[in-house]
Amino acid sequence: MAAPGSASGPGTANETGAGGLHPRDRSVSGTSSPSTAATSPLAGGVVTGGPWRRFSLRRPLAALIFQRLGLSIGLLLAVSIMIFGGVEALPGDFATTYLGQSATPQAVENIRKDLGLDRPVTERYLSWLGGALTGDFGTSWASKNSVSEQIGKRLGNSLFLAAFAAAISVPLAIALGMIAVQFRNRLPDRIINVVSLAAISLPEFFVGYLLILFFGVKFGIATFPSTVYDGMAFTDRLSAIALPTATLVLVVLAHMMRMTRAAILNVMSSPYVETAELKGLGAFRIIARHAAPNAVAPVVNVVALNLAYLVVGVVVVEVVFVYPGMGQYMVDAVTVRDMPVVQACGLIFAAFYIFLNMAADIIAILANPRLRHPR
Question: Contacts from 93-99 at CB under 8 Å and sequence distance 24+?
């Protein structure tokens, strides 16, 4: 017979550990299991693990920033492989296009040898990537000019156009989003929503042609085509880019405004906003001083995406307005199979898109401490 108070049965040995302590009692008695001690990030006040884990535990914000930077560089490397491989897979051949259909096989072979197209693909990719890392994108096959020099001029024009479009669209989108929140479900909010939906529905080339028709042809108050050149006066440049800037603003304004409105409305249901309302603060002051700063993270993300579009998505707009930027340069290069130019433009566009998104992630992490400690 078992003694009173003693446990009997097959489960007794499993529920009682060494030394007669139940597993739940080990934490009380100060004895920890080996697995717990091995996985604990801190052992006796000293951070365990590798150098990166110790750094991430001591500097979580810096670790997150370095992670975003590493991911962006890795993604850009993968994109460079895709760009080079995609260009290699395009149908047609520059030598045949350059010499014409009546070219002899020997002449085509000589051109390919002069351009280095007879080398293995891997060797050509590594050579191109090494040059790109140093800012040397090679020589244009069509014009025999330095691709880097040509891109320097064209990229400056594209950034000039994108900068003015951003300077107008970003503040205007944020202001319209705040106004829509202040007058939500009323006439101003509905008008802004209808106009923004109409702007989103229209493609940029259609908007561009409408602006050319009315302001360039019928009324004659805008410059077309939008030609700029070195030494051009600043006021003349502004006049030349008026129509393409207006097109880009109309295309990106609606998206940024709607996302700003949605982000601020999401914050407006927070308890601290209700407290501010109970204190008697005005509606616009509550939105501007309390709601908008806490909606920075989603707003910054959508602004970064649209800024990337202003640089990357100008291809159609530049072609419509005959603007001498990166987009026009890339389209001309595709027409004549000038692959060094196509590869360089594609890589630069990808770099802008990736690193603007990386900057948005970092700004969101700095603005919202909750993002520094993901679950």
Answer: 93/337, 94/141, 94/336, 94/337, 94/338, 94/339, 97/336, 97/337, 98/141, 98/142, 98/336, 98/337
